[in-house]
Design brief:
The complex is a heterodimer. Chain A contains 12 helices and 23 strands. Chain A is α/β, with parallel strands linked by helices. In chain A, the strands form 5 sheets. In chain A, strands 9, 13, 14, 15, 16, 19, 20, 21, 22 and 23 form a 10-stranded mixed sheet that branches. A 7-stranded antiparallel sheet of chain A has the order 1-7-4-5-6-3-2, with no helix packed on it. A two-stranded antiparallel ribbon of chain A has the order 8-10. Chain A is elongated, with a radius of gyration of 25 Å. In chain B, helix 7 packs parallel to helix 8 and helix 10 packs across helix 11. The longest helix of chain B has 24 residues. Classes of the chains: A alpha/beta, B alpha+beta. Strand 5 of chain A pairs antiparallel with strand 1 of chain B. The site of magnesium ion (MG) has 4 residues of chain B, from helix 3.
């Protein structure tokens, strides 16, 4: 039985300090106050002075409250019983189900040995042309959706989760609006995916420290399943809230901020989570799809900026569409050579033409004379946005490729597409002629 | 041995109360749950030593025991380093995986070199010889190289060879020679020794100015912003602009003996590509596997931060060791910003007064000292060896006006700046041709590249103007200039890293193709309309791209070149005189016919 300490010496932000001996870095404790009890984690030690971060926050904690050390770091129960369940950021049930305490595993464990990873090779189909055709999602990829707040990023995540061919879905919600949380639950339930989903949800009204725990707890569970050979998809929404929680705590700890108030280790903190995405040689995989809302639509803001440096590309969500520019799947080249012979070339050609369309659009807006070529591009751009970019389009990759050819044929003559002759011979639709 | 006890823990910094002497940068082990965790002393205040722990610090408690080793953070040198994959502290990752499985278990440190392997040793020194640090005692074959077994770098005084073993098979820990100093002290020497990573190896005769181009087979680099053997360069660029891909193709194609890849705080996945592909890829220069001349030091972003700081020093020390054998080494560090951030994290924990963006005030001198370890040197045996360092920089917000980029630009010899605009337009490699610079000589006569650069510059101006006044408002002359600059960009500056032929363009081909490009640049045309000019250049570009994709001197290559020249003649009305003179300086075969 561990000793109980009942003298809290300092309370600042969410951090309390007690005098105690025999305590280890990262150890968990229970703080019991008049308002209930909360877990707390040791974050700094100096001689007998122990600083703890209180998960439920320090509001209502009194200097006379009691602290009991548990002798182990933060853990989560891991078993198939988790499936279909909903928990909060510190692993307590949010549904009416029972508490789980079997097979407790540590969270925030060590990194995977790079020598044990394999080169990603499987495409995850989503039936969204802007993803499947232009920026293929790959098993074990870590990829955020960059988005301005107000964009339908949660519906996009939910839809990908439902359509992706994965075994399990783990949703980590950080600062999630309660409505969004309900939306996720209902959508996955309707799609019949609830029994292969685990939720770890921190809502905007929950204590901030619990927000910090969500990615670690979700990823620890994902890792457990992946080691059992399952393909796991982890959805993290919204990582900007996670970064803001880091910032808040760093400031209370009086750390020197590096960039717009964020701590200097923001990169390492984010990377430690995203790098959990992995394809184990001889076991399962973890794919991470996150949301990073960009304050003021500014990609250079520290959170999207650091995220961009860590992740393997991003989907740029703007005006309800995944933008062709700014979106980049860095792993697409590993899979799109194996889908269909025309995939890569068609992707390149359609994007180049769409870029040319944007230029013509600009010229038009400046009042310059439109050439025949400009007019063809203007026609193409409109069709492209409607039939490829619109998020309501829901078709398999092959249908999207076929449609791509149809779109090109309805706007251009074959040579104008800059596609190689052998592809043109094979795929160019014969009915339509050149431009009309 | 000095001992101590933990009194404080803050992140990966541990404060230790010491009983006895401690040295700055000394290695110590913190005992924690039956494991000994490697750490390094980074500040000493009275009886208190502050140390960075190279592992996760979870579970360390006040009162835990600390053992000091009296050794500085060092690497082990000797035959068998090539083809290895190490973490930042020279722990061999595949062996670690064999022992610990999927995850990096802390507190497990394996021997960096195979101690059981037998090496066929051939002596080069004989009893009675006088030798000193870095002199060869003998050699063993390591892959394609003759690996010199050298007098350990610590012995700076002349020593006498007392005894040396005859040719035969030995293991690295076997004594192969005995040396003695003036006082008669005897020193047994094996094939391996350690060297502190933060101390440069300087057992050479003199440093030389780097002037010989290091051919990367990337056109925009070799022709316009070259690097030199023994020189330094940096690649700053926003995320996704192509820094890593650029380093990956360089690591395959650069004309050096050994490539050391320091994957410093970046994605594990990227290392995996190298790790899994290099053992299968043949090196066109030697016919052997690329891996045989590569060392990977990999401390990826989720591995402990303190070891990240050490990793670049581990890499440069291994490079210095091989340079001492008269070899040419290329060290590619991706990304130096992550290393700088590791410094920043530690500096924050030490509560030092922060400089700009919270980087420590000594950032600039640390970066300068690192790049200073590159260089072309003349060895004591008159041979030369070189280390070239290429580091990527990941500036916050893609803005080069930040401390790491700026400190790096002050010390490097070439700057390859990647631009978001070019990478968005999928113009790879996305090196900005006008903003980047190099102080080194390139493959092509400078008059030629200056001429081409001038067209790029003026063409770019014309294009800017055109955005304002429209195509109608632009003169045919300016329009032609614009088309020429676009032409240089699309057929020469851009290069397809994923195309089997275009990915690597050797010196001879680069010179040849540049002359053909130059012939186009100096041509005068009689276009009547812009439409006609654009049509012409579109056609020409298509042919040139096919030409770039044809194997050197193949039938297709010759045919496309003939086609290009014939097509050029259809619209060519003359040539710029100055350009014509420069073309002659570019030398090579007669300009009419390549065959
Ligand atoms: N030379 C190239 N040819 C074709 N595609 C390229 C080239 N360079 C980069 N790319 C594309 O851009 C993507 C990102 O490149 P890369 O990973 O090198 O960026 P980076 O600058 O290293 O980014 P970060 O700073 O985030 O590490 C690649 O996955 C690839 O799709
Ligand atoms: Mg990179």
């Amino acid at each position: 039985m561990k000793k109980i300490y009942s003298r809290i010496e300092a309370i600042a932000g969410n951090v309390i300090t007690v005098h105690a001996g025999g305590v280890r870095n990262g150890e968990l404790a229970v703080v019991r106050s008049a308002h209930g009890s909360s877990l707390a984690e040791v974050i700094r030690l100096y001689e007998q002075k122990v600083s703890l971060q209180v998960f439920a926050g320090s509001r209502g904690i009194s200097t006379g409250d009691r602290v009991r050390f548990l002798g182990h770091p933060m853990r989560v129960s891991f078993s198939a019983d988790l499936l279909g369940r909903i928990f909060d950021g510190s692993g307590r049930p949010r549904d009416r189900g029972p508490e789980l305490d079997e097979n407790m595993i540590e969270i925030g464990g060590p990194a995977v040995n790079p020598a044990q990873r394999i080169i990603p090779r499987n495409m995850i189909r989503t039936n969204i042309p802007m993803i499947d055709l232009f920026n293929s999602l790959v098993e074990s990829q870590k990829l955020p959706v960059f988005s301005v707040s107000g964009e339908p990023y949660n519906p996009l995540l939910a839809r990908i989760a439902l359509q992706a061919e994965v075994d399990l879905i783990i949703l980590g919600g950080m600062g999630l609006k309660h409505d969004d949380y309900l939306y996720f639950r209902e959508t996955l339930e309707k799609g019949g995916a609830l029994n292969r989903t685990v939720f770890f949800v921190h809502t905007a009204s929950d204590p901030i420290v619990e927000c910090l725990l969500v990615p670690d707890i979700a990823l620890a569970v994902a890792e457990g399943f992946a080691l059992q050979g399952r393909k796991v998809l982890v959805l993290l929404s919204d990582m900007t809230n996670f970064a803001d929680a880091l910032k808040e705590i760093a400031i209370t700890m009086e750390q020197v901020p590096s960039n717009r108030g964020y701590p200097g280790d923001l990169y390492s903190q984010l990377a430690a989570r995203y790098e959990k995405a992995v394809d184990f040689s001889g076991a399962g995989s973890i794919t991470i799809l996150g949301v990073t809302t960009m304050p003021g639509d500014d990609v250079t803001h520290p959170v999207p900026d650091n995220t961009g440096y860590i992740t393997e590309g991003q989907y740029y969500l703007k005006n309800g569409r995944i933008e062709p520019f700014g979106s980049l799947s860095r792993l697409k080249q590993l899979v799109n050579s194996k889908t269909r012979a025309d995939h890569r070339a068609l992707m390149d050609s359609m994007i180049t033409l769409y870029a040319a369309f944007k230029e013509s659009l600009e010229k038009k807006a400046m009042g310059f004379k439109m050439t025949d070529w400009d007019r063809k591009l203007l026609k193409y751009g409109v069709i492209f946005e409607r039939e490829m970019m619109d998020l309501s389009v829901n078709i398999p990759l092959e249908a999207a490729l076929d449609n791509g050819w149809r779109i090109l044929a309805s706007c251009f003559s074959p040579e104008e597409t800059r596609l190689r002759s052998e592809l043109l011979r094979k795929y160019w639709p014969s009915r339509e002629g050149g431009a009309d | 041995m000095t001992k101590g006890r933990v009194v404080g823990i803050n992140g990966n910094m541990v404060t230790v109360e010491v009983a006895g002497d401690v040295t700055m940068n000394e290695v110590a082990y913190v005992s924690c749950a039956g494991k000994k965790l490697k750490s390094e002393v980074i500040r000493i205040r009275g009886r208190l030593a502050e140390m960075q722990v190279f592992e996760m610090s979870r579970g360390i408690g006040v009162g835990d025991e600390v053992e000091f080793t009296a050794e500085l953070l060092s690497v082990r040198l000797g035959p068998g380093l090539l083809a290895q994959v190490y973490d930042g502290l020279q722990n061999p990752l595949p062996e670690l995986a064999a022992q610990c499985g999927f995850f990096l278990e802390r507190g497990v440190y394996l021997s960096p070199l195979d101690e059981k392997k037998e090496w066929p040793f051939t002596p080069a020194a004989k009893p009675g010889d006088t030798v000193t640090a870095g002199d060869a005692l003998g050699t063993v074959p390591e892959g394609i190289f003759s690996h010199r077994i050298m007098v350990p770098f610590q012995f700076r005084e002349p020593l006498r060879v007392e005894r040396i073993v005859p040719a035969g098979s030995y293991r690295i820990l076997d004594t192969i020679a005995e040396l003695s100093d003036e006082k008669g002290n005897r020193f047994p020497v094996t094939m391996t020794f350690t060297w502190p990573v933060k101390r440069p190896v300087t057992c050479y005769r003199e440093r030389l100015r780097p002037i010989e181009p290091l051919v990367t087979q990337i056109r925009i680099i070799d022709t316009f912003i070259p690097i030199a053997r023994g020189g330094t360069y940096c690649i700053p660029g926003p995320f996704g602009a192509g820094k890593t891909v650029l380093q990956q193709v360089t690591s395959r194609n650069a004309d050096v003996d050994i490539v050391i890849i320091a994957a410093c705080g970046e994605r594990a996945g990227e290392v995996v590509e190298t790790l899994r592909e290099f053992p299968k890829l043949a090196d066109p220069r030697t016919g052997r596997m690329l891996m045989e001349r590569t060392i990977i030091i990999c401390n990826t972003s989720s591995m402990p931060v303190a070891a990240r700081e050490a990793s670049v020093y581990t890499a440069i020390t291994l490079a210095e060791y091989y340079r001492q054998m008269g070899l040419h080494i290329l060290l590619l560090a991706d990304s130096t910003s992550r290393w700088a951030q590791a410094l920043r994290e530690m500096s924050g924990r030490l509560e030092e007064i922060p400089g700009e963006e919270a980087f420590p005030a000594y950032l600039e001198s640390v970066i300068a000292a690192f790049y200073e370890r590159a260089g072309l040197v003349r060895l004591r045996d008159k041979g030369t060896g070189s280390i070239t360092i290429g580091g990527t920089v990941s500036p916050a917000g893609g803005n080069f006006d930040e401390p790491v980029t700026q400190s790096t630009l002050k010390v490097v010899g070439a700057f390859h700046g990647l631009s978001r605009e070019r990478s968005d337009a999928r113009k790879y490699p996305a090196i900005h041709p006008l903003e980047s610079w190099s102080k080194y000589p390139g493959l092509i006569h400078a008059a030629g590249t200056e001429y081409a650069r001038d067209i790029l510059f003026r063409g770019n101006e014309a294009s800017q103007m055109m955005k304002v006044v429209g195509e109608e408002g632009t003169s045919l002359e300016d329009y032609e200039l614009y088309l020429k600059s676009e032409f240089i960009d699309s057929v020469y500056l851009q290069q397809d890293s994923y195309d089997p032929v275009d990915a690597a363009v050797p010196t001879e081909r680069q010179r040849h193709v540049f002359r053909l490009l130059f012939t186009v640049l100096i041509s005068r045309f009689d276009f009547h309309t812009k439409e006609m000019a654009r049509f012409f250049f579109n056609q020409l570009r298509q042919k040139f791209l096919d030409y770039n994709g044809s194997p050197w001197r193949s039938d297709d290559f010759t045919r496309y070149e003939d086609e290009i020249r014939a097509f050029l003649e259809t619209k060519r009305s003359g040539e710029d005189e100055e350009g014509g003179r420069i073309l002659k300086q570019l030398g090579g075969e007669s300009e009419g016919n390549p065959s």
